[in-house]
Amino acid sequence: MISDNYNSRLTTIKIPGLHELNVRLSKLLDMEVWMVTDREVRRLMELLGKGMSLASAAAKADMDEKTARKYRSLGKLPHEVRVGHGWRTREDSFHDLWSEVEENLRINPGFEAKTLFEDLQRRWPGRFSDGQLRTLQRRVKIWRALQGPPREVFFPQVHRPGELCQSDFTSMNPLGVTIQRQPFDHLIYHFVLTYSNWETGTICFSESFESLSEGLQNALWELGGVPELHRTDRLSAAIQKPDHPEEFTRRYQALLDHYGLRGHKTQAESPNENGDVEQRHHRLKRALGQSLMLRGSSDFSTRQEYAVFVRKLFVQLNGGRGGRFQEEVKVLRRLPPRRLDSCQRSWVRVGPSSTIRVNHNVYSVDSRLIGEKIEVR
What integer pLDDT is reported at residue 107 of this predicted model? Predict the structure, then answer.
């Protein structure tokens, strides 16, 4: 039998033959399981403030008089006095394996929860369903907040579509990529649109002007347009020394002029001004590291195979940026009719030893060219 009081709240529930259930329900009612809302308490306080009696105010606020008296005495809203439970509502599926997961995180904090979860599913077939990924993600998030490495601090900037692109070089050597088991030491020239975070990159081997020119032009032609401003840090290949009257080197200024770009450099000791691309460096390396882990090997048969692998990763990273990227595309300026050569050209004569000397380096060529003048790129 269920009976109602004057304000329609449940007061008693009697189910014959189920004494234990009656007791539990009675206790829940005493604990106000039908929770009073902040809105109801605000209404109660408003009516009491108008001089209405407690009984009348409680009735109008749809509240039991005893409960109304409690909140009148407390002077607080329900969310301010509610205490959350600290006990688990279900068994921890990762309890016996957590020490192993934690050890992996200590060795390599870059591991993502999804990577660790997929590893557990492979090693314990049928034990973990896909729906349990969120549980592990929460545990990993808590571990990183309490015991993980310090996180980067950055300050948001206001960006507008098509206005600014940033670029920089980043070393990929820490990832341990090899070509036919031989170390493949290399950099990536990394290009980012700051509004949409659309990014791309070119494999290179030095922070030379040639690498800068090739990487920037590859990015612009892949992008299909030209932003207003290009920002770099203080690259020696592009930026003159502080005592030089010109801001940029002639070759870099010519490259900017060819594409109608305005150049901008970061201030000394202020790498945060190039913060978008710096942040993308870390995320690119993390994503590439995760992809290599899932691939099961960091060794590639050819440089081209590795380049294709990196290209696919950029496509995946840009997959969720379509909306903001389209905003940028609409305001980008047109590309020039052609690219500039990214290489440096010089003419040298082949010596009697069938060698040439270029930039203080000696190279051998075919002996048939002895005495001939050849173009070197």
Answer: 82
Maximal CA-CA distance, the chain: 113
**Distance between CA atoms of 216 and 219, rounded to whole angstroms?**
5
Residue 252 parent element (H or E): helix 250-259
Three-class SS of residue 199?
strand
Give the tens place of pLDDT for each residue, 103-118: 888 888 778 999 999 9
d(C-alpha 82, C-alpha 91), whole Å: 25
Among 232, 233, 220, 202, which Cα is nearest to 260's?
A: 220
Counted residue by residue, the chain has a size of 377
Q: Render the burial of 81-99: b for 16+ CB within 10 Å, e for the rest.
A: eeeeeeeeeeeeebeebee
Is the four-CA dihedral 246, 251, 256, 257 of positive or negative sign? positive
Q: What is the pTM of this model?
A: 0.55
Question: Of 83, 67, 51, which is closest to residue 7 (Cα–Cα)?
Answer: 67
CB count within 10 Å of CB 372 equals 11
> For 116-122, which contacts have Cβ atoms below 8 Å and span 24 or more sequence positions?
116/140, 118/294, 120/94
Residue 274 · residue 165 · CB < 8 Å: no
Asked if residue 258 lies in contact with residue 336, where contact means CB atoms within 8 angstroms, the answer is: yes
Asked whether the beta carbons of 342 and 210 are under 8 A apart, the reply is yes
CA trace torsion 132, 137, 140, 144 (10° rounding): -170
Q: Which helix (H) or strand (E) holds 369?
A: none
- Enumerate the β-bridge partners of residue 117: none
Round to whole Å and give the CA distance between 369 and 377: 16
Q: For residues 53-77, give the mean pLDDT.
A: 88
Tokens standing for residue 290 = 């995760």
Residues with Cβ within 8 Å of 215's Cβ and at least 6 positions away in sequence, in order, are 167, 189, 191, 201, 202, 204
Q: Residues 153, 155, 160, 165: what is their CA dihedral angle, to the nearest 10 degrees? A: -50
Alpha-carbon distance 300 to 285, whole Å?
17
Q: What are phi and psi of 49, to 5 degrees?
A: -65, -20
The reported pLDDT for the residue numbered 87 is: 56
Q: What pLDDT, on a 0 to 100 scale, did the predictor assign at position 5?
A: 43
**pLDDT tens-digit readout, 326-371:** 999 999 999 999 988 766 778 899 989 989 988 778 899 988 989 8
Number of helices and strands in the chain (H, E): 13, 14
